[in-house]
């Protein structure tokens, strides 16, 4: 009996071992099938073998089941919520771009209009007041005061430049230039127009420097050491610049006039297609917020200049048709086409630039606040520049050549004869003054609101930058651009003697310190950093410690960037 029991136990143990071995083999077979790419979802191995598993595999590989799975399978977008939320925000940003961009463009347009009307309205009156002071002060005695204030000297120089350039422009025959350009082929005119656009930007970039050099040379304190060539050479350079720039804009307006008067409008179509080429040259480049601010200012200036060119074209055409109102409606569709293409190109360009560079649409409100700050700061008692010059530096818009050309075209197109005509001119001048004053009041109130919303009121009371600080800023930017490949350690010794920022001895990094990642200027471009942040930026970028150079701020905000400051830093 005991033998039979022991024999039964042994057989049961052997059977259990066989079952375990079969199960282990079945698991190994499943793993091998998965490695070979065969999907086995229902098959299993039992004591009788793997026949049932093979039948299940064949049924799973049927075409009907594959099609059924493709038609009924699902997925859940919430598993990647952050990605799809970001995509939706990009769409909303693109939809907001036209509204925010046009707000900035409208504000910038009225800024340019205010500067442009200043040349026709207040500048002549200021020149007359300065000349009266120049004539009356010597008779009354100087009394130790200046003969003319610096602002009055600049106004008189602007007035003399306008008078001399207008007398030189009177010798230029507009009709001969029109027929000379009209005789050229379409391709030549297209190339000429593109060359004129490039030349206009180059003239604007260098022209404001010439005018600023003249103003500073004429008003520089006499006790300082003379480091210039004299006022007269600077004045002659300024007159030559304004005259050449006015001629350049005249050729540009004449080319556009030829395009309007062509029979098949092919030239006008080609010139408008040139705007869409601008999209290709801008959208696929890397832009930071500072670069986008510079491009926005350039677009504002370009749009305002195009409006003045269209006004000149309409005046010339209306004069040729004896001021017939019917002819204006003939020109109206072409004018609308030019304006519409310009607006559409700007919207598409800015929408895709903000999309590709992950820039929020709120940045245009910050750009508006920066432009408003220029207007408000120019009304302060400690203002160190005229508002028109500030707009010129910021946007590259110089009103003198454009105003000179418009005066030349208006005087040649409109004939003034009789007392009634003079009364009409006087009323028109008073109307322009009224428009200038109202525009200035509205702009000033709107600008104060923008500055208050951006919390920039404290910067209005900051002192103007000194020569030492400006040189320190330029040195800091130069050294920063030179040494961006590797971070530097502070290079001042403990005694407080600072080493040369451009030359630093090699230093070993302490263990446990991570390498510093160079940051972009766009991180601190909107608001002026706090004092502690300024010290950190100063020590990290310049490698200086202590109070040796307090005025060095290597990073710029929007208030320190003008139209041509960062053109060389654009990344193609």
UniProtKB/TrEMBL annotation:
UniProt biased composition (Low complexity): 467-481
Its membrane topology: Multi-pass membrane protein
Biased composition (Polar residues): 512-527
Annotated protein name in UniProt: Transmembrane anterior posterior transformation 1b
Keywords: Chondrogenesis, Membrane, Osteogenesis, Transmembrane, Transmembrane helix
Main subcellular location of this protein, as a coarse class: membrane
UniProt biased composition (Basic and acidic residues): 10-24
GO cellular component: ciliary basal body; endoplasmic reticulum membrane
Transmembrane feature ranges: 104-121, 160-181, 235-260, 397-414, 426-451
């Amino acid at each position: 009996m005991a033998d039979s029991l022991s024999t039964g136990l042994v057989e049961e143990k052997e059977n259990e071992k066989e079952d375990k071995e079969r199960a282990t083999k079945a698991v190994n077979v499943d793993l091998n099938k998965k490695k070979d790419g065969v999907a086995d979802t229902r098959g299993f191995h039992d004591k009788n073998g793997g026949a049932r598993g093979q039948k299940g595999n064949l049924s799973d590989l049927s075409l009907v089941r594959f099609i059924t799975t493709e038609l009924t399978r699902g997925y859940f977008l919430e598993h990647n919520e952050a990605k799809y939320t970001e995509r939706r925000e990009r769409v909303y940003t693109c939809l907001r771009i036209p509204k925010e961009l046009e707000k900035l463009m409208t504000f910038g347009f009225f800024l340019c209009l205010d500067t442009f009307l200043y040349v026709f309205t207040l500048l002549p009156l200021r020149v007359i007041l300065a000349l009266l002071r120049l004539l009356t002060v010597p008779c009354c005695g100087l009394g130790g005061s200046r003969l003319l204030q610096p602002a009055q000297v600049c106004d008189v120089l602007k007035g003399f430049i306008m008078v001399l350039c207008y007398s030189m422009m009177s010798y230029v025959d507009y009709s001969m230039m029109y027929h000379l350009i009209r005789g050229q082929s379409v391709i030549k005119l297209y190339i000429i127009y593109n060359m004129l656009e490039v030349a206009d930007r180059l003239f604007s970039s260098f022209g404001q420097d010439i005018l600023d050099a003249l103003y500073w040379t004429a008003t520089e304190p006499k006790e300082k050491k003379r480091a210039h060539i004299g006022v007269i050479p600077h004045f002659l350079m300024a007159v030559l610049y304004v005259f050449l720039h006015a001629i350049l804009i005249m050729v540009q307006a004449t080319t556009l006039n030829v395009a309007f008067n062509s029979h098949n409008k092919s030239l006008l179509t080609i010139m408008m297609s040139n705007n869409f080429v601008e999209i290709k040259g801008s959208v696929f480049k890397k832009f930071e917020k500072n670069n986008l601010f510079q491009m926005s200012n350039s677009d504002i200036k370009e749009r305002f200049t195009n409006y003045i060119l269209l006004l000149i074209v309409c005046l010339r055409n209306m004069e040729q048709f004896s001021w017939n109102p019917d002819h204006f409606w003939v020109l109206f569709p072409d004018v609308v086409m030019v304006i519409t293409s310009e607006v559409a190109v700007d919207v598409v360009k800015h929408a895709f630039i903000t999309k590709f560079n992950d820039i929020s649409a709120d940045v245009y409100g910050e750009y508006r606040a920066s432009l408003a700050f220029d207007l408000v700061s120019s009304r302060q008692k400690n203002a160190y520049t005229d508002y028109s010059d500030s707009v010129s530096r910021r946007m590259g818009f110089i009103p003198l050549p454009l105003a000179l050309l418009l005066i030349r075209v208006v005087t040649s197109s409109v004939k003034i004869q009789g007392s009634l005509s003079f009364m009409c001119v006087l009323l028109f001048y008073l109307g322009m003054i009224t428009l200038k004053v109202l525009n200035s009041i509205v702009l000033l109130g709107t600008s104060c609101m923008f500055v208050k919303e951006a919390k920039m009121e404290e910067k209005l009371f900051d002192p103007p930058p000194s020569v030492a600080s400006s040189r320190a800023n330029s040195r800091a930017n130069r050294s920063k651009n030179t040494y961006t490949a590797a971070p530097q350690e502070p290079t001042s010794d403990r005694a407080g003697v600072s080493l040369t920022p451009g030359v630093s001895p090699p230093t070993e990094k302490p263990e446990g310190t991570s390498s510093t990642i160079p940051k972009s200027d766009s991180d601190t471009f909107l608001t002026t950093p706090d004092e502690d942040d300024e010290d950190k930026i100063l020590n990290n970028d310049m490698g200086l410690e202590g109070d040796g150079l307090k005025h060095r701020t290597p990073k710029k905000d929007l208030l320190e960037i003008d139209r041509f400051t960062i053109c060389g830093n654009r990344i193609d």
